[in-house]
Backbone:
């Protein structure tokens, strides 16, 4: 491969520059057919673990609201109060049922773990979510103990669940899409509130499927825990919404702005999806390449299976959730288009050793960092990339379990995460541009 073939044109678009820069791991001499080569490849397990365990980029989701410290404290104190209501550790004299004692202890330990995690949480959003989880688990322990001592009934929990569900429904029905000139900030806040309200509602739905069968103290406690978690999440959504409205100096309705953005992005996705092979397509045949059990093949097929669907394009359960989901979908679509084009042109490299794995991972890290720097709105970019940053840890966990001598065929699916990461990150700035244009943000 010549130096000339690695040089870039004198002028490229921002999206093109990222795509070219991220193509380093695929740039090769046009290897057709089997992307893995003709001979089986084995990787050194310890070296593989060393490469994959390196610190990856952390991208927290933006949280553009100032949460009152008293709200956080009240949620934490609520969890501790419920734990204090149970005389742990329970003895056989206090509760004869050993299995139930163990369940109470496990839920109490989970609550304490989540409380500790909340202290170390890298963002306010994660801190509140850990506290809501802690409250749910603490309530299971407290509720089970109370039910075992005839201090809490299934009927009381049902009534509390019904009241909580009505409160969630009323909150969602009365929610208004307001904001000011910072449309992106408003979009992010509304998305968060919609997510939390939907999560709270979903959190108490499974209880409806357990109306029959034995209702013992543990069942009552678990149902009470579900209600507590939902109440905590609803309280967080209400607080964030209130704090956001209080921060607006010139509030106005953004419903039509979000609705127009949704419709515009739907048209964009539908137009670009028209050129994408259908889900049932034989990508091997279309690309005239054997992608089976290869890193690039797994990445391409995963991206293909994760493209925006018709239902996702036309979602109506929340305008903000829908718009942000469409922007993320456009990034995934751009990633598929990029990788498909590279493989189609034979512009890929075989993975023959740890150095190639290191190149895959380095390309993914660089692409995430470049996407944050190149995106026209850092907040939208971080929203797209926040979930992806967790893939580095997932890949490390998966690949660390493969032993000291690893056949590439066993590692290919997990290594494909790096390829998907790199291409989605490289497509993020263009997706952010699409989102901003749809929102009318210059």
Residues:
């Amino acid at each position: 491969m010549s130096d000339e073939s690695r040089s870039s044109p004198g002028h490229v678009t921002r999206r093109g520059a990222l795509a070219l820069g991220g193509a380093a791991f695929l740039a090769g001499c046009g290897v057709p057919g089997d992307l893995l080569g003709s001979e089986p490849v084995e990787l050194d397990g310890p070296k593989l673990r060393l490469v994959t365990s390196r610190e990856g980029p952390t991208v927290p989701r933006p949280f553009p609201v100032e949460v009152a410290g008293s709200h956080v404290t009240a949620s934490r104190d609520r969890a501790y109060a419920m734990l204090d209501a149970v005389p742990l550790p329970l003895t056989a004299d206090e509760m004869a049922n050993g299995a139930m004692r163990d369940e109470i202890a496990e839920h109490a330990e989970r609550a304490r773990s989540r409380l500790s995690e909340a202290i170390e949480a890298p963002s306010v959003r994660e801190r509140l979510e850990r506290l809501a989880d802690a409250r749910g688990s603490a309530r299971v322990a407290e509720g089970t103990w109370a039910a075992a001592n005839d201090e809490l009934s299934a009927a009381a929990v049902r009534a509390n669940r019904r009241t909580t569900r009505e409160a969630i429904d009323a909150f969602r029905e009365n929610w208004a899409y307001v904001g000011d000139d910072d449309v992106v900030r408003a979009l992010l806040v509304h998305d968060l509130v919609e997510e939390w309200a939907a999560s709270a509602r979903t959190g108490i739905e499974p209880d409806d499927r357990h109306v029959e069968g034995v209702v013992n103290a543990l069942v009552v406690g678990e149902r009470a825990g579900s209600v507590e978690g939902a109440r905590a999440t609803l309280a967080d959504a209400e607080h964030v919404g209130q704090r956001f409205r209080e921060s607006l100096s010139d509030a106005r309705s953004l419903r039509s702005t979000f609705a127009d953005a949704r419709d515009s992005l739907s048209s964009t996705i539908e137009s670009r999806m028209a050129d994408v092979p259908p889900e049932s397509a034989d990508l091997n045949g279309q690309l005239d390449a054997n992608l089976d059990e290869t890193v690039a093949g797994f990445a391409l097929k995963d991206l293909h299976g994760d493209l925006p669907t018709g239902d996702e394009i036309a979602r109506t359960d929340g305008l903000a959730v829908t718009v942000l989901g469409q922007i993320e979908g456009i990034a995934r679509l751009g990633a598929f288009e990029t990788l498909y084009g590279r493989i189609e042109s034979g512009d890929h490299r075989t993975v023959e050793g740890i150095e190639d794995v290191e190149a895959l991972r380095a390309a993914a890290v660089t692409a995430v960092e470049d996407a944050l720097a190149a995106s026209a709105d850092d907040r939208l970019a971080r929203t797209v990339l926040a979930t992806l940053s967790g893939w580095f840890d997932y890949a490390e966990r998966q690949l660390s379990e493969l032993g000291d001598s690893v056949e590439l065929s066993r590692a290919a699916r997990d290594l494909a995460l790096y390829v998907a990461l790199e291409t989605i990150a490289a497509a993020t700035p263009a997706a952010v541009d699409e989102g901003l244009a749809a929102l009318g943000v210059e």
In short: The radius of gyration is 25 Å. The first helix runs from residue 14 to 22.
